[in-house]
Amino acid sequence: MCVCSNPAAADRRQAIRETWSDKDMFTKQGFHVVFVVGVSKDPSLNKLMQDEYDKYGDILQLDVIEDYSNLTRKGLANMRWVVNKCSKNMFFLKIDDDFFLNTFTLLDRLHNMIEIKYIACIFILLLTLPCIIIVYTTV
User: Fold this and answer.
1) How far, rounded to the nearest angstrom, does the alpha carbon of residue 60 sit from its chain's CA centroid?
2) d(CA 33, CA 22)
3) Rounded distance between C-alpha atoms, residue 39 and residue 67, angstroms
4) Cα(98)–Cα(129) distance, rounded to whole angstroms?
5) pLDDT, tens digit, 9 for 90 and up, residues 47-105
6) Phi/psi at 128 (nearest 5 deg)?
């Protein structure tokens, strides 16, 4: 699960760690949460990103300048990382750090999907906010 964030949004990442992305619950289910950020123009924020990575191990800092105009590049770099590093995973979820995810509903729905023989986008309503789940398979 990739949570798109901004280097300056440490408070959002911490709130997610303390609420819906409980590491113990996800690890038991075979899921991993990674916060995806770009490179900040502010060197002190990049240092804080390194410190946060050293503490939690859940930061993926892509080689893309963090800027609104680079969101497409950031998204593509994120997908390249997923394809290269997570090719054996069946599911990939991209979500922003300003969403609240009902992880219990998500895990329940994913566990109820027994056979997946195609690549598809599934639109799942979690609480009142939609999330897009991109399903990959190795058929």
Assistant:
1) 9
2) 9
3) 9
4) 11
5) 999 999 999 999 999 999 999 998 889 988 888 888 888 877 777 888 999 988 888 88
6) -115, 5
Among 69, 68, 63, 58, which Cα is nearest to 2's?
58
**Environment class of residue 37 by beta-carbon count within 10 Å: exposed (0-12), middle (13-18) or buried (19+)?**
buried
**Global pTM?**
0.77
Query: What are the structure tokens assigned to 118, written together?
Result: 């195609």
Q: Which two tokens stand for residue 122?
A: 């599934």
3-state secondary structure the chain: CEEECCCCCHHHHHHHHHCCCCHHHHHHHCCCCEEEEEECCCHHHHHHHHHHHHHHCCEEEEEEECCHHHHHHHHHHHHHHHHHHCCCCCEEEEEECCCCCCHHHHHHHHHCCCCCCCCEEEEEEECCEEEEEEECCCC
